[in-house]
Amino acid sequence: MDVYEAIYGRRSVRNFDSVKDVPPELVTKLLEAACQAPSAGNIQSWRFWVIRDPSIKEGLVRAALGQSFIAEAPVVIVVCTDLRACSSGYGTRGTTLYAIQDTAAAIENLLLAAWAEGLGTCWVGAFDERRASDLLDLPPHIRPVAIVPLGYPALARPKPSRRSPLEFTEFK
Ligand SMILES: Cc1cc2nc3c(=O)[nH]c(=O)nc-3n(C[C@H](O)[C@H](O)[C@H](O)COP(=O)(O)O)c2cc1C
């Protein structure tokens, strides 16, 4: 699949095949793709927690305001950022901006690589950070940015439409 097919084909998946597992080698391959993203000063502030434990997945559902599809995925990746790494490189701009940008770039790579492998994902941003951090026992300098359930799609849904870039773009 070329990059345009992945970009245009990808859509959020919220129904997963409960029988088909995602092998650990494939998860590793996707994380390697995530880590090919650009990052400020190549600091690579992203950090990943790979969750297969059903009770932790249920905890993530509670942290994510009851978004139950998270626990239906065989694998859930919690993508975090290391604020200390960003701070030592770039101070406040590092912790408030680059940390999130680095991680977002890695998340998008992860989503596109997963789609190219026939897997579905959803970028879940609506969650209680404190509850997620407590659940995963994260140290204070690790901030969870997104919860990404990962699995084989059970339902094919149409991709939501997009507005034209011309509506958002100025040419000078
Ligand atoms: C920062 C961010 C936060 C999001 N949070 C959630 C979420 O909490 N729950 C959810 O179901 N989808 C969430 N999404 C997915 C969007 O709803 C989805 O990307 C959007 O509707 C476009 O659909 P598509 O991904 O199928 O193209 C989030 C996406 C982003 C980028």
Task: Describe, in plain words, how this protein is organized in 3D.
Helix content is 43%, strand content 15%. Helix 1 packs across helix 5. It has 172 residues and is an alpha+beta fold. The longest helix has 34 residues, at 83-116. The model has no long low-confidence stretch (mean pLDDT 96). The protein has a single domain (13-155), classed as NADH Oxidase, CATH 3.40.109.10.
Give me the secondary-structure topology.
Elements: H1 3-9, H2 24-34, E1 46-51, H3 54-63, H4 69-72, E2 75-82, H5 83-116, E3 120-121, H6 129-136, E4 142-151
Antiparallel strand pairs: 1-2, 2-4, 3-4
Helix pairs in contact: 1-5, 2-5, 3-6
Flavin mononucleotide is lined by residues 11-12, 14, 67, 122-126, 159-160.
Keywords:
single chain; 172 residues; alpha+beta; NADH Oxidase; four-stranded antiparallel β-sheet; 6 helices; 4 strands; 15% strand; globular; binds flavin mononucleotide
